[in-house]
Amino acid sequence: MARDKQGRPLVAVTGMGVVTSLGQGKHDTWAALTAGKSGIHRINRFPTEGLRTTIAGTIDTVEVEPFSAPLLSERLAMLAAEEAVGQSGLAESDFPGALFIAVPPVEMEWPQRQALAEASGQNGDVSYGALLQAASTGQFKPWHDLFIFGTVADRVADRFGTKGSPISLSTACSSGATAIQLGVEAIRRGEADAALCIGTDGSVNPESLIRFSLLSALSTQNENPEGASKPFSKNRDGFVMGEGGAALVLENAETAKARGATILGYVLGCGEKGDGFHRTRSSPDGTPIIAAIKAGLDDAGMSPDDIDYINAHGTSTPENDKMESMGCMAVFGERMEEVPISSNKSMIGHTLTAAGAVEAVMSLLTIANGRIPPTINHTVPDPAIPLDVVPNVARDANVSYVLSNSFGFGGQNTCLVFGAEPKS
């Protein structure tokens, strides 16, 4: 029986797919990531005059019409899932398990609001409720369906034939990791032998940029887009928005082996801890971050000494990088001086809802290839963050176990532990 130390079914990964601003598919994204290339560039999708931030890691090779975050998020989810399910060898239209998908919060976007307001013939301000009412009938009915939170999940479920009611979730920047955690828990409880876990986000639009700018969360270093995201550097000034989609096929390891599947790795531990300190800031003492890391390790039946590499949340904001560093040092102690930790966001930006899933794929590829992606743009080290951030250049290393951190606004903290094999 394939069981972990707690007697639960082992959860294997048998398929992975990813789309980022660096490329479509695992091969292109991984090659660019380990080469230290950046997918961040000036935004050309819409006018940026008057915006404080005019750069992002948009995915311009995937077009949807009319452009909207739900449609692009759906398309990115489909592309990632097609690659993951195809690699797993499971039926592409009759998936034998549940769907857990992290999607961005949805609401009607400015172009659609404007069109509805004009069509209503009303003067002055039009209430959001009136816009929804107008959208529910006639020529605008497709928009009503588009801007419902569960629509993306329904369409993905129909495409792949997943079983049961699809689960849509949004836990801020830890959403992608939460989707994986839900899949792991379903398999451990025996509710499913397989799970399709997805994180997707295509929401770089003017409204999102303005909202994050009002929180002082975004980098304003627009002059050099590729150099703007600089996690753990002293001159970091905020994150850069990115878009992406990633999917993992999880299976009961025993079932996967019985059908002759190739196992790409294991999800060994999941830890989470809420932080009610502030809507965007972490508790100053770092207690929730520390608790989430420890919970992930405990769930995997492992200690800090077992971890070979940390895939950082590493957003490039002054607050997050400081708190993540403090939390890791508190858990790993002196060993943190020798455990490499790097941030994929230095190259692809912060893919928000998709980030935890994207970084899960990168963590498993790090194990498979024995190569750690770098943290690029690290030219001015922060003396308050004495970590080995794998600066600027990828590093070959033997990596068997990875801790992947996801810390979101609203106090959502999720940490996953991946391994090449179960820990004996």
Description:
The chain has helices at 26-34, 69-88, 110-120, 128-135, 141-146, 151-160, 175-188, 206-214, 253-258, 287-300, 318-332, 345-348, 355-369, and strands at 11-20, 23-24, 41-42, 55-56, 98-102, 167-169, 194-201, 244-252, 265-274, 309-311, 341-342, 371-372, 395-396, 401-408, 412-419. The protein is of the alpha/beta class. It folds into two domains: 11-106 and 148-418, 3-Layer(aba) Sandwich (Peroxisomal Thiolase, Chain A, domain 1), CATH 3.40.47; 110-146, no CATH class. Strands 1, 2, 5, 6, 7, 8, 9, 10, 11, 14 and 15 form an eleven-stranded mixed sheet that branches. Helix 2 (69-88) packs parallel to helix 6 (151-160). The longest helix is centred in the first third of the chain and has 20 residues, at 69-88. It is globular and about 65 Å long. The two termini are 14 Å apart. The model has no long low-confidence stretch (mean pLDDT 91).
- The poorly predicted ranges are none
Estimate the helix proportion, in percent: 25-40%
CATH fold title of the largest domain: Peroxisomal Thiolase, Chain A, domain 1
- State the helix count: 13
**Spatial extent as radius of gyration:** 21 Å
Structural class: alpha/beta
Give the overall silhouette: globular
Task: Furnish the topology, listing elements before pairings.
Layout: E1 11-20, E2 23-24, H1 26-34, E3 41-42, E4 55-56, H2 69-88, E5 98-102, H3 110-120, H4 128-135, H5 141-146, H6 151-160, E6 167-169, H7 175-188, E7 194-201, H8 206-214, E8 244-252, H9 253-258, E9 265-274, H10 287-300, E10 309-311, H11 318-332, E11 341-342, H12 345-348, H13 355-369, E12 371-372, E13 395-396, E14 401-408, E15 412-419
Parallel strand pairs: 5-6, 5-7, 10-11, 10-14
Antiparallel strand pairs: 1-2, 1-8, 1-9, 3-4, 7-8, 9-15, 12-13, 14-15
Helix pairs in contact: 2-6, 3-4, 7-13, 10-11
